[in-house]
Amino acid sequence: MTILIVDDDLELLEQLSKALERKRYQIETADNGETALDKIFSVPYDLILLDIMLPRLDGLSVLREIRQAGLNIPVLMLTARSDVEDRVKGLDYGADDYLAKPFSMAELMARIRAMLRRDGNRDPVLRAGAISLDTRSRRVTQNGTPLDLTAKEFSILEFLLHNKGSAVSRFNMAEHVWGNEFDPFSMSNFVDVHIKNLRKKIKTPGDVPIIRTIRGIGFIIDDGI
Questions:
Q1: What does the alpha-carbon distance between residue 143 and residue 87 come to, in Å, rounded to a whole number?
Q2: 22 Cβ partners below 8 Å, 6+ apart?
Q3: What are the residues whose beta carbons fall under 8 Å from the beta carbon of 130, sequence distance 6 or more?
Q4: What is the DSSP code (8-state) at residue 186?
Q5: What mean pLDDT do residues 182-187 have?
Q6: What's the whole-number mean pLDDT along residues 7-11?
Q7: What separation in angstroms does the CA of 224 have from each of 69, 158, 164, 211, 220?
């Protein structure tokens, strides 16, 4: 399960990221509203933690754009404000829940679990041909046989399956998997190395690659595997 945390408090951002990663969630972050929207419209998330007070574009505006675009991603609003008007606005704009700062980590975790359960009508299993990837158990199988993937290989395959049928650029994939740690100068071949390893682990009839290279763009996965 991939969660986007949007908050301009960098210390809190780090604390939340570490806490949620310990619970085995895949975490991405943004410290302003514009960056958050860029990520939301290019990466599929299972849940968004969204602060109201943000630079460049406030959280309520981000939420409004998400809903106007037809995205039904669960959104939990976070704010230091206790004003009832803000809470009402957030819910009116389409927030699924609201948590005022300061909050306990236990309460946040409970809210997240409840929201993901409510959104459980979405199939947690991503499929392409004989490949099945369970986003909750983080289990990957081919024709029912488990595949032993590294964390990075899992994230790359998950990203490709979320975007099945569409070409994904190397840069977007690297940004999704490595986040802020990605350095395009020193890590330019990281994606290709992991793609090569994935292809070795996923055997297909006639050795036709499960992940196809789109010259000049990146990679694609579809049902023709």
A1: 47
A2: none
A3: 142, 143, 225
A4: T
A5: 71
A6: 94
A7: 30, 17, 11, 10, 11
Supply the pLDDT for residue 50.
96
Task: Show the CA angle centred on residue 40, arms to residues 1 and 153, nearest 5°.
Answer: 45
> Which pTM value belongs to this model?
0.56
Amino acid sitting at position 98: Y
Q: Are the CB atoms for 140 and 147 separated by under 8 Å?
A: yes
Q: pLDDT tens digit string along 88-100?
A: 677 778 888 888 8
From the CB of residue 15, how many other CB atoms can be counted at a distance below 10 Å? Answer: 13
- Report the amino acid identity of residue 116: L
Domains located in the chain, CATH noted = 2-118 (3.40.50.2300), 125-220 (1.10.10.10)
On whether the CB atoms of residues 4 and 30 are closer than 8 A, the answer is yes
- The verdict on whether omega for the bond into residue 102 sits within 30 degrees of 0, i.e. cis, is yes
Q: Among residues 121, 76, 82, which one has the least CA distance to residue 94?
A: 76
The closest alpha carbon to 161, from 221, 71, 223, belongs to 221
pLDDT tens-digit map of 150-181: 888 988 898 888 778 888 888 878 876 776 66
Number of helical H runs and strand E runs in the chain: 8, 12
Closest by alpha carbon to 191, among 217, 225, 166?
217
Phi-psi region for residue 185, left (φ > 0), alpha (ψ -120 to 50) or beta?
alpha
- What sign has the CA pseudo-torsion 86, 91, 94, 100? positive
Cβ atoms within 10 Å, residue 183: 11
> For the sheet containing 212-214, what is the strand order?
168-169, 218-220, 212-214
